[in-house]
Design a protein that fits this description.
heterodimer; A: alpha/beta; Rossmann fold; GMP Synthetase, Chain A, domain 3; 2 domains; 12-stranded mixed β-sheet; 12 helices; about 25% strand; globular; B: alpha+beta; VC0802-like; 4-stranded antiparallel β-sheet; 3-stranded antiparallel β-sheet; binds zinc ion
């Protein structure tokens, strides 16, 4: 059903886009307002979408709780919510058809990494307002797999269940996956030898290739990345295939654009920017050009697995954490990965943006490791030069590296304060 | 001879702070050399109790390292550097100790000790 040629996917996209815009115009006062002055008959392709303003998380919060719903209240069968740190939570409503589509997409995600009806799937995502638990539950059940709705917590029992019921697929956050592996070892269980975990499906937080290596060395045969958010149904929006080189986004249900988060301009494929998603099949709360605040790169090249749905790269970070230096977007996660690979340094660092004359300047302050193994200045200078070079390669900008003494970078609640933008403080932006 | 090296930021007061900690812990400084590169530097020290110094300084969250050096008298330095050079041993850095001695960090201190011993030269390891 979803293994379609590119041309057919694009045809479905165009058809569904026309339908959803018309549907929203007719059923949503919020979108009728947004679409004011736009001839909706002219919205026929992905390119035409650019005429429509963005929808933001604030739009959902400001219209809390029912303002974006465009079906009769009797048709709503579910609410999910993601918590905000301040103000109203982000509430999302579902119709029966929404749950049906969401389940289908979650099933696809499992299917493309060879999960089938013989598998025992343990779901260690939270069941409740959070969409993680139920999304995977529906997908796995639909495949005919054996579901263990373990939810989160009670780690020792999770491990016992894995062992006794012969779990073959674990679904949880990557950090909980690493923790499960650790606790298993403490319990005298070597997951790679004593458990049968052929796959782990890890989502709900950004993770790195480094983490994949750790998970595959200590926990599961294959670690896969999955992407989603409650505003877009939940998990199952995009999923890695067996080639582990980007996450296929289900383009018959979603249209993805990548924009410059500062200007709103749509970027070319291979350019890094904020992912903006238009939902094509949602009923209760469809969204046009929803700003996810997640930073990624879109890749529309054919994939070796044969799927023609475009891929997004791993989430690089959130727009909230982004620094713009001389027009280049810089994310703490990119710099962190490079620092972690460099011997003699601690993972504590701080990015300081400043301006020298008219030029932006990026200073990367890194603590040397407490047990740094050198008395020779040249070794430190080499570390510094290597870091400078690698940052130049990865980010395309010249950063100034400042090595600082251990514990000198201010911590708040145990976490280092990552970004200091002196340009803002000095009113230069 | 054990030398300890401490990573310090190149800012006013950092060296004073280091010496204060050593003094408060009754650790005597016999020799000191500083090398700096931009915003940081390394302070190398010969102390009466290097192991305790490492413990004390690590407790203060300082980046500390231990290494082996040899010490020769300043009069012998021209001769010592010549024979080490001939033996293919590099002197990475050096600093003076109470005006009459020199602390040498060499590329291979075991080989260096052997060469100097064979030539009957006086040195401290
Ligand atoms: Zn693929």
């Amino acid at each position: 059903m979803y293994k379609l040629p590119k041309s057919e996917i694009e045809e479905i996209q165009r058809k569904r886009l026309r339908q959803i815009v018309k549907y929203l115009y007719e059923n949503s006062s919020f979108y009728r307002n947004k679409l004011r002055g736009i001839d909706i008959d002219e919205i026929r392709s992905k390119e035409d979408l650019r005429k429509i303003p963005f929808t933001t998380k604030d739009d959902i919060r400001d219209n809390y709780p029912f303002g974006l719903i465009c079906v009769d209240f009797s048709k709503i069968v579910r609410f999910h919510a993601s918590s905000g740190t301040t103000g109203n939570p982000t509430v999302v409503a579902y119709t029966i058809q929404d749950i049906e589509n969401w389940s289908e997409l979650c099933k696809r995600c499992l299917e493309i990494v060879d999960v089938n009806s013989n598998d025992v799937v343990q779901i260690a995502y939270g069941y409740g307002l959070f969409t993680g638990g139920l999304g995977f539950h529906y997908g796995a059940e639909r495949l005919g797999a054996k579901v263990i709705p373990a939810s989160t917590g009670n780690t020792k029992r999770q491990i016992k269940l894995m062992k006794d019921l012969g779990t073959t697929v674990i679904c949880c956050t990557p950090s909980y996956g690493l923790y499960l592996a650790e606790v298993a070892k403490e319990e005298g269980i070597n997951p790679k030898r004593d458990l049968k975990l052929k796959a782990g499906i890890f989502g709900a937080e950004p993770w790195s290739e480094n983490t994949r290596r750790k998970l595959e060395e200590n926990f599961v045969e294959n670690a896969y990345d999955i992407y989603g958010m409650s505003e877009l149904n939940g998990p199952g929006v995009a999923m890695e295939c067996k080639f582990k080189n980007g996450l296929h986004i289900w383009e018959d249900h979603y249209i993805v654009e990548i924009i410059d988060p500062n200007t709103g301009e749509v970027l070319e494929p291979e350019e890094k920017g904020e992912m903006v998603v238009t939902t094509l099949t949602k009923e209760a709360m469809p969204l046009l050009r929803y700003r996810t605040r997640d930073i990624t790169i879109l890749n529309d090249d054919p994939c070796d697995c044969g799927l023609n749905h475009a891929r997004i790269m791993r989430i690089l970070g959130r727009t909230d954490d982004m620094l713009k230096i001389r027009g280049v977007c810089v994310f703490p996660s990119q710099i962190e990965e490079i620092i972690m690979k460099t011997n003699g340094l601690s993972p504590h660092y701080q990015l300081v943006a400043d301006r020298e004359g008219v030029m932006d300047k990026l200073i990367v302050r890194v603590e040397v490791a407490e047990d740094f193994k050198t008395d020779r200045l040249t070794d430190l200078v080499n570390i510094q030069n290597k870091l400078e070079e690698e940052l130049k390669d990865a980010l395309g900008i010249n950063a100034v590296i400042e090595l600082v003494e251990p514990k000198k970078i201010p911590r708040s609640e145990g976490k280092a304060q990552r970004i200091v933008d002196l340009r803002k403080i000095r009113g230069l932006l | 001879m054990k030398q300890i090296s401490v990573f310090l930021e190149n800012r006013p007061g950092r060296l004073a702070n280091l010496l204060k900690i050593l003094k408060e812990n009754n650790i005597k400084v016999f020799a000191m050399g500083i090398a700096e590169a931009g915003n940081y530097g390394i302070v190398r020290l010969i102390l009466d109790n290097p192991d305790r110094a490492i413990e004390v300084l690590r407790n203060m969250n300082m980046a500390v390292n231990k290494s082996e050096v040899i010490i020769v008298s300043i009069e012998l330095l021209p001769e010592v550097s010549k024979v080490l050079g001939e033996a293919g041993i590099n002197i990475d850095y050096a600093y003076t100790m109470d005006g009459r001695k020199v602390v040498l960090k060499v590329s291979d201190e075991i080989k260096a000790s052997e060469v100097l011993r064979n030539l009957g030269m006086e040195f401290i390891v």
